[in-house]
């Protein structure tokens, strides 16, 4: 608790920023771009360094500047035109309450894992439905599949409906579990990081799927294969739902 309390005291000392309607959208965009930057650097460096190129899942495909810039422009547009109005309404209807006491570490870890499992299930069902119904795929999900070989900035390259749906899933789960605001922020950041890693196009020695045993977590190879083949691996993170529904393909 001592470490988390120090962290929480640091956060609550900036209440004017945290309670601002601008904070959620600033946190979202800043975290997203910060998590994308290492992979952007890898995309630039690995074209020149063979030792890095071996970690690229599809080494024959590298994003160009002309592919990256539209992704950044769309992300800025979505954050300003879409995400900010939604978070402003959320700020107006449900003001953030900042308790004095921080949560305990086991509580944070458990609730973050449960939030991730819930998000994984919700997105699996949403994703499967939008691939099985042609009208839903063409109308809402097809834009996300523009790039067969994914790179970090394709993570949020999606339609407004898809962005809203996934944002709703990510926002509602901590509310349902009555998570501490610090837990909610940690889950939010972990979820963005895992989404970026999924779309990075790299299978690195420290990638998350290598840290989770028994093949329970698919990671970037699992999701990269979905973009390549289209008809398998619908869950964003874990593998159990795809295995249960018979939509799992070994990466």
UniProtKB/TrEMBL annotation:
Cellular component, GO annotation: membrane
Membrane spanning stretches: 22-45, 65-88, 108-129
Localization: Membrane
GO biological process: lipid biosynthetic process
Domain named Fatty acid hydroxylase: residues: 112-247
Keyword annotations: Membrane, Transmembrane, Transmembrane helix
GO MF, any single term: oxidoreductase activity
Ranges in a coiled coil: none
Entry protein name: Cholesterol 25-hydroxylase-like
Organism: Podiceps cristatus
């Amino acid at each position: 608790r001592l470490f988390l309390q120090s962290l929480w005291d640091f956060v609550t000392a900036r209440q004017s920023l945290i309670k601002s309607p601008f904070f959620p959208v600033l946190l979202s965009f800043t975290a997203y771009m910060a998590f994308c930057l290492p992979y952007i650097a890898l995309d630039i460096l690995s074209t020149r360094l063979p030792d890095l190129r071996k970690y690229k899942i599809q080494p024959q495909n590298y994003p160009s500047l002309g592919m990256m810039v539209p992704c950044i422009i769309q992300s800025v547009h979505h954050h300003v035109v879409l995400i900010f109005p939604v978070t402003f309404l959320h700020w107006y209807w449900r003001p953030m309450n900042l308790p004095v006491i921080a949560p305990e570490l086991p509580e944070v870890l458990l609730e973050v894992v449960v939030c991730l499992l819930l998000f994984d299930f919700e997105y699996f069902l949403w994703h499967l439905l939008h691939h099985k119904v042609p009208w839903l795929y063409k109308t809402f999900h097809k834009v996300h599949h523009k790039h067969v070989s994914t790179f970090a900035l394709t993570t949020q390259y999606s339609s407004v409906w898809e962005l809203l749906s996934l944002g709703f899933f990510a926002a509602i789960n901590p509310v349902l579990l009555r998570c501490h605001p610090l837990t909610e922020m940690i889950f939010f950041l972990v979820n963005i990081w895992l989404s970026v890693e999924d779309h990075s196009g790299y299978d690195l020695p420290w990638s998350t799927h290598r840290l989770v045993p028994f093949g329970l977590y698919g990671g970037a190879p699992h999701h990269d294969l979905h973009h390549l083949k289209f008809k398998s691996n619908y869950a964003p993170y874990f593998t159990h739902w795809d295995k249960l529904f018979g939509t799992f393909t070994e990466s």
